[in-house]
Structure formats: C-alpha cells, structure tokens
Amino acid sequence: MTNAMTTLTCGESTISSPDKALVLQFANFVLGADQVKAPTANTSVPAIGTYWDGQGGVYAGVMRGEDRQPDYHLIVPTAAAVLGVKLAWGDYGTESSDCAFRRDGMANTIALMEGDHPAAQFCANLEVEDHTDFYLPAISELALCIANVPELFEKEWHWSSSQRSAYYVFGMDFADGSQGHNAKGNELRVRPVRRFFIR
To answer: What is the pLDDT of residues 106-139, one digit of tens each?
Structure first.
C-alpha cells in the first residue's frame, strides 16, 4: 500500500513527503526563515519585557526550537486589536495530529488554517507594524510568556494551539500559572505571538 504524498511549495523551495508533519515543519522553517521580517544586523536585542521597535510587540525572550529548528525570539503584540479578544478554538469533535505540537505554535496554526478555528484564524489574520506572521502560541510558548511577561496577559485562561484530543485543547491560566485542557467550543482569551529565528 502506498502512502499519500503531501507536497508544499514555499518560494523556490518544494518538499514532497508522505509524512505530513515533516511538510508542516518545512513550511514553518521556510516561512520563519524567509518571510519573517527579522531585525537588521545592527539592531540590539532589548531587555525581556521591553517593546521592540519595529517588531510589533514586547520581547518575551528566546524560545528553544523544536526538533531540528533553530532557537527564536518570541514577540507578544500589545496593539489595541489584540486586547480583550475571546473566541472559541473550534472544530469540536474533530482531531488532527497536525496541531499537537507542544512547542511549535506556528506549525499548529498552519494546520489550523483548514476548517473552522476562530482563535488560530484571528491570529493568522492579524497585522501589526506591517507584520503579518502572527500565530496562536503553543502551550510551551505560553509557558515562556507567563515566566517572562505575565503582565501582558489578562489573568484568565488563554488558548494555546496545542490540541489534546478531538474535544480538548491545552490552555494556560494567567491567574495562577496552571495548565489544563478546555473544551474546544468554550470561548477563552486569545493572544497572538510572532517569532523570528536567531541568525
């Protein structure tokens, strides 16, 4: 029996593989490396918790890349358009293994562009300071945020993009730092992030 191939083209690069997760990782790497607006070489990294001019938000620190990906800077927007947003995660009763990454919210969000996923789609459609590469953070990216910049988040439950099952998704409570799972039909806080890889 032959496995179905998934093919994706980003710019001049193409990958074709029966491993859909590998194709998503490729998309994540190419999108991050080639289309994300990184700071110029002479730009210094600000202190954690400081607004990073031209990058669309506050610097939350360095996130370790998943698998073979490089480490990256994580940015949390503070524009009025992202404050106070509550949405459902969506697709209650449907499970996809392509959005189960615990540390890679960009790959999860790419997978969530198919189907009805209001929280992820809100993040992906956001534009701040000409940046359009926002995504719904994975649960470990939210853990970095609560460790470094908790003051940027309402003291309530926030969605991650890390799916737990057909009915539940991992979330983070910024009131006390606990992690748990919430039903996909619930409306929770949504806070996008963006990244750029460390060169």
So the answer is: 999 999 998 899 999 999 999 999 999 999 999 9
Give yes or no for residue 146 having a pLDDT over 70: yes
For 68-115, how does the pLDDT look when each residue is reduced to its tens digit (9 = 90+)?
778 999 999 999 999 999 999 999 999 987 898 999 999 999 999 988
3-state secondary structure 113-136: CCCCCHHHHHHHCCCECCECCCEC
Hey, what long-range contacts does 51-55 have (CB within 8 A, 24 or more apart)?
Answer: 51/78, 54/129, 55/129, 55/131, 55/194, 55/196
98 CB-side CA count, 13 A: 21
Identity of residue 111: A
Q: What is the pTM of this model?
A: 0.80
Contact 153, 145 (CB under 8 A): yes
